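Hi W.,

Here's what went into the run:
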Amino acid sequence: MNRHLALIVEDEPDLAEIFAEALAEAGFTTEVIARGDKALARLAETVPGIVLLDMHLPGVSGDKILRYIRTDPRLAGTRIVIASADDALAQTLEADADLTLLKPVGFIQLRDLAQRFLSEHPHGDR
Amino acid sequence: MTNARSPSSPQQKYNLRSRLTSVLALIVLFAGVVMGTWIITFVRHSEERAWENRQQEAAYSASLTVERFMDQVLEYVAVAGSLDRTLLVAHPQVMANLLSQNQALLEVIRLDHKGAVFASAHQGDVAVLSNLFTIPQSNWFLQSLQGRSHVGDVELSATNEPYIILAAPATDGGVVAARLRMDVLWDVVSDIRFGQTGQAYIVDVHGHIVAHADPQVVLDNTTISGRPEMGAALQAPDHRWEATYRNFAGQKVLGVTLPIADSDWLIFTEVSQAEAFAKVNQSLFLIGGTILLLGTFVGLATNLLLRRLIFEPVEELHDGAERVGQGDLDFRLQVRRPDEIGQVAATFNLMAGHIKEREAMLAQARDEADAASRFKSRLLANVSHDLRTPLNVILGYADMMNERAFGPLTKEQRDATERILINTRRLISLIGSLLDQAQIEAGKVELNYRPFKPADLLADMEKMMTLLAQRKGLTFTTSIDPKLPSTLEGDPQRLEQILMNLVENAIKFTVKGSVGVRFYLNSSHWVMEVSDTGPGIPAEAQPHIFDPFEQVDGSLTREQAGVGLGLSIVQQLTSLMRGEIHLTSEVGKGSTFSILLPITPKKGETT
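Here's what came out:
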């Protein structure tokens, strides 16, 4: 598992750039994926330390990706941060995610949260 | 009587029925009583007339009998008066023979004009007249001497035999006198009978009873003078009289009188009123019974008719109306009759049809409205989602610039990014409020109850709001009651939303002074209290400030930014949490909002 790898699944490029910048400043290596199906394909190859997940995505929706991560034991240590504008949907998934952020997500807010993740002990080396 | 099915109407119905029935029965009874009285009066009248006729006949025949008897007696006396004096003196037995032929006479005498007896005879009893020494002064003698005959009063002999003295002028200028045995006359009177109680008696002009079926009445010297209503008979012209009265024996009777010709007597015939009016009483019972029976019959018949004709159909109408009223709009009454009730039923069916159409229209309208509402919510959710993404970008870049991600900023540049940030946040919170309002209205807000620390809630809020207050030069204070449990159950996100809304409002409207936030415990609730030294809210505006899109001044020109959703959301979230919101405010002094929340909230509350 690559603890320092952050997978940013976001179809809005401007937002993806801001998120990437914030996570990079926090010390992560970032990778932006704009489609849900591509995100699933990438998750089959690598085990990132954190996945920043939008809900409304082309290809495969965010909640399906979330469920996939939570059922794959390989990805048990991966932190999931939901960033969605749909708070109703986000609320229903809150229990499965490590953190739920309601858009708009500020640059500083995300950077500070990401820093806290890195400094904490990883999620049990299951 | 009342059944569970319908609480009030049957009661009223039965009332109406019994009222109608009793009114009809009363009318019948009244008519019956009036008719009965009339009939009875008529019967009584004709009965009275009939009895009077009967009595008159009886009286007439009695008077004739008495008359005939008296005529016969007087004829004897006249015969005795016409006999030659010398014959009588020579043959005293002639007188005795004459007397022996008539049992009614006790004694006969002849007198000369000086009152000297020259012939006499008597039977049974002792001689009375011939032994009198007062003859020349006697009334009967003097009267007969003047040519008028005399009928005397009842007297008693030494052997207690009642008699009256009869006297008449004799053909020789003298006088003939006789004693008449009264008991013979009494026998005559006692033979007069009619009906069950009918009787007759003879009274002289002075009111003395002369002859009666009961001899004792006569012997007691009874008069009718003590009975004024009977005395009227003595004054009546020709002694013809009839009346109902109480007779000398105290009996209530119907009486008729007739004069007895050639005498000073009149005959009374009486029949008891009980007998006279027996038929009247009978008919009274008959008519009373008939009226009662008729009344009962009419009552029962009207009751039955009313039930058949009115109440059963009305009940059917009522049941039908109830069924339709309870939502069975397809129910139709059977229209069996062409009368008014049938018409009502037809009209009712028409109405039910209209209601059904209307219901369908309303259902359609409601469906359309629901669809429109769903569309609105959906639109709001989508629009706000689509608005948030670009706003997030603006926010992100402004943040990054502020964090010198693109190099250091001049003071002006920093000021500009700061303004971009503030206004972006305002826009974001506005969108958030709109979405919240829409979700609350759509009933989609779900509360996530979990344990939380009120101290954390207060601290987080303070961190965000202190700067805002400081920028306006306001003192910002927070305090927490040590008695408040350190952990409470609730939805911290929604609580924060409530608190932030109130504090933001307080800071926004307060120009100088302070804003204070206090968490404390009262008897049954824990309280979040936000107070300020702002302009205050006028009493007349206080009831409306929780309405959506309402600000204190209510006009289109707003002194303060915001669409006026904050307090509406606060109130709706508070009531979702089963809490209460209290406001105390005075214009010019400030406002205090208190959110009272249950200490042990009910879990899983949704709307």
